[in-house]
Here is the input.
Amino acid sequence: MSKKNILITGASRGIGKAILESFNKEHFLVGTGTSDSSVDSILKNIKSLGLEGEAFKLDLGNRKSIKQLVSLLEDKEIYPDILINNAGITRDNIMLRMQEEEWDNVIDVHLNGQYLLIKSFLKKMVKNKWGRIINISSTSAVLGNKGQANYAAAKAGIEAMSRSLARELGSRNINVNCVAPGFIETDMTKEISKGNEEILASQIPLGRLGKANEIAEVVNFLASEQANYITGQTIHVNGGLYM
Ligand code: NAP
Here is the structure.
């Protein structure tokens, strides 16, 4: 594959960091984080791995921040050929107690944020007659989860949006897919899994939580030429939690 610009949102920690680390020197990597220290840590990581790339600040819950990132990349003439929408948050609460802010925040960061990023970079992908969009979903989209109506709705929306885009963009040689992780050991799941590791593992046929690199490998595959004929799919990586 020729050199590609790859944008990974939320590349400072967890799954996004592992995705960034799964690529090799032939590509130009752009990672985002929400703070200066996150951006610094991505830059350090890129450097220490001997990769070529840049890191920028992005808050997907803030439309101004999304616009700023897009115009910064345009100024630098960095147009993502491969867009990996990974960044995410949880604001869990049962519906009886869920605040509008918790609902809006999760829908904004996941669904609205991804829509705005995809729309911003699509024109160039269409012009280039090549593109890959990989969106990180969750098993919550298909299983549902107590206290995660906001998150499950956002992730189900992402999957449905991806299938529609795959139909719209197939003729332009742009593949759109999702990867839906199960229970993966990252900061996002630290609190829930603390002390509950055995109970959680007992619900998973493979008997353990997943690792960030086990998601990254699948994302990397979908970005590769080996996945040229895959579009509109959600690939589940969950140790058998959902099948
Ligand atoms: P994580 O360890 O909590 O990392 C989240 C990443 O997203 C960080 O890089 C963070 O940046 C960034 N981020 C947070 N809020 C943001 C915002 N408002 N705007 C832009 N970026 C933001 O999470 P993770 O477990 O790696 O999750 C990555 C993706 O996988 C998410 O979409 C998540 O929903 C999905 N997922 C995870 C699991 C799991 O078990 N872990 C399961 C299913 C799906 P900072 O470092 O600057 O805060």
